[in-house]
């Protein structure tokens, strides 16, 4: 088996493989003597000019350092103040600065330099996510010819949004150097093809094969999953249910999201407010637990979403709370996975209502955590990649608080039979297309894509 080299912004440095991506890649990394390369996590004053080895995992882990200037330009700047808002349909939140783009290019070039001595014939490289778009181009420029694949975890923007980038042509040139582009949803593959057709020179050769910037590239959809069997077990063994119930009340709705403007939290709070206004019988009968650990706190848009959501939840609580009931519990602290699993299982309704989302793994975790005899109901935004496959959820438009409030009321009153029917269909998909299925399907497709003859530039 050829050696797998995974590259991502962050190197997974925890002792336990807690993240789904680590679980997904661990087998392939272990069995092929593979390597995971990523950023060490903290900018440093004197970055080393070599990769650091981190022992203690079943595969080799190598990290690179970044200085403060590169970290700010590449990570906080181009990645999270330009690409993230753009890919989530919020070009108005972009902060375009030439030094961000320069820093972004510089980091991929640096990572390519640092990787080079570690690469050998027969390797395959799998680059993860929007922080490292230029990496294949940089590696190819240094003479690397092994298969290089790419997976985008977030949505791909359509032509109108792509045109708002400072460098749309360059984006498509970066992408053209990969053998296989993986997307979360058909929506993203469609946006990629249409944006590259309008803003670059893309020509479709088939549904999944394209000519772009003089090269041939394969592009396909691989919806990411979770480690379903582990999560089902985690939820079954979750802390004592009676204790959870006394903590959470009889009927609970749950939301679990990084505190991010793409996750639609203000809209969710407004819908809950409408639910209580139009269904006074639910007062003291239902509560809403929102867990939202903050991220990227030094980016201004994240400070704004924190203020907005704190203000809104405070307002709803002020309007409806009684002496022995608080409608919304809004918690900014992260919880251990097994506690989350238990809370999902306890919640009658799972709220996954992003305005834009690559996939959304919380939707899958919520389904996996349910008791199959008495399962809860998933309310899912049509703008999550998950909505393409999880069609038995209550699918809603998160911009419409009335529709969302009606779905909440429908979920509260849904019969056990209907809940079981929907849940068993959803669970089947979550189990069949789990994270192991995702990585093995992707890697098989990469092998195939890379076997094709390389096109010449005049073809
Ligand atoms: C990106 C894309 C795509 C959250 N709070 C806690 C906690 N979490 C865990 C959840 C879930 C993960 O974090 C979040 O994953 P999502 O998929 O919901 O969203 P993003 O972080 O935005 O991820 C997304 C994903 O990549 C994978 O491709 O699905 O669309 O945006 O697993 O459970 N985990 C713990 N405590 C918390 O408080 N332990």
UniProtKB/TrEMBL annotation:
<dbReference type="Pfam" id="PF00982">
    <property type="entry name" value="Glyco_transf_20"/>
</dbReference>
<dbReference type="InterPro" id="IPR001830">
    <property type="entry name" value="Glyco_trans_20"/>
</dbReference>
<dbReference type="GO" id="GO:0003825">
    <property type="term" value="F:alpha,alpha-trehalose-phosphate synthase (UDP-forming) activity"/>
</dbReference>
<dbReference type="GO" id="GO:0005992">
    <property type="term" value="P:trehalose biosynthetic process"/>
</dbReference>
<comment type="similarity">
    <text>Belongs to the glycosyltransferase 20 family.</text>
</comment>
<protein>
    <submittedName>
        <fullName>Trehalose 6-phosphate synthase</fullName>
    </submittedName>
</protein>
């Amino acid at each position: 088996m050829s050696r797998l080299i995974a590259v991502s912004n962050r190197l997974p440095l925890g002792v336990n493989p807690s993240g789904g991506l680590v679980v997904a890649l661990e087998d392939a990394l272990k069995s092929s003597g593979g390597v995971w390369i990523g950023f060490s996590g903290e900018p440093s004053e004197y970055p080393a000019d070599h990769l650091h080895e981190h022992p203690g995992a079943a595969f080799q882990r190598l990290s690179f350092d970044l200085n403060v200037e590169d970290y700010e330009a590449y990570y906080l700047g181009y990645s999270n103040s330009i690409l993230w808002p753009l890919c989530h349909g919020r070009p108005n939140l972009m902060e375009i600065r030439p030094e961000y783009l320069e820093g972004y290019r510089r980091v991929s070039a640096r990572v390519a330099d640092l990787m080079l001595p570690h690469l050998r014939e027969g390797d395959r490289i799998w680059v993860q996510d929007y922080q490292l778009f230029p990496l294949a181009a940089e590696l190819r420029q240094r003479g690397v010819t092994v298969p290089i694949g790419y997976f985008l975890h977030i949505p791909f923007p359509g032509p109108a949004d792509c045109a708002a980038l400072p460098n749309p042509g360059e984006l498509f040139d970066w992408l053209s150097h990969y053998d296989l582009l993986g997307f979360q949803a058909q929506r993203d593959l469609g946006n990629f093809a249409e944006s590259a057709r309008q803003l670059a020179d893309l020509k479709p050769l088939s549904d999944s094969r394209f000519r772009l910037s003089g090269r041939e590239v394969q592009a396909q959809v691989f919806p990411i999953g979770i480690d379903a069997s582990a999560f089902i077990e985690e939820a079954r063994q979750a802390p004592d249910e009676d204790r959870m119930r006394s903590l959470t009340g009889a009927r609970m709705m749950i939301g679990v999201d990084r505190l991010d403007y793409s996750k639609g939290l203000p809209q969710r709070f407004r819908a809950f407010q409408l639910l209580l206004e139009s269904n006074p019988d639910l007062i003291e009968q239902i509560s809403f637990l929102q867990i939202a650990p903050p991220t990227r706190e030094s980016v201004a848009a994240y400070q704004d979403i924190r203020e907005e959501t704190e203000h809104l939840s405070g307002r709803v609580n002020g309007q409806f709370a009684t002496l022995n009931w608080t409608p919304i519990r809004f918690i900014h602290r992260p919880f251990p996975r097994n506690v989350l699993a238990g809370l999902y299982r306890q919640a009658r309704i799972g709220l996954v209502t992003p305005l834009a989302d690559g996939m959304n793994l919380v939707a899958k975790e919520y389904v996996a955590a349910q008791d199959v005899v008495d399962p809860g109901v998933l309310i899912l935004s049509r703008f999550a990649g998950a909505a393409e496959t999880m069609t038995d959820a209550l699918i809603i438009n998160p911009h419409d608080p009335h529709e969302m409030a009606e779905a909440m009321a429908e979920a509260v009153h849904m019969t056990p039979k209907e809940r079981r029917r929907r849940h068993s269909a959803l669970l089947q998909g979550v189990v069949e297309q789990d994270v192991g299925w995702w990585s093995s399907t992707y890697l098989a497709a990469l092998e195939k894509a890379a076997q094709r003859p390389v096109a010449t530039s005049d073809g």
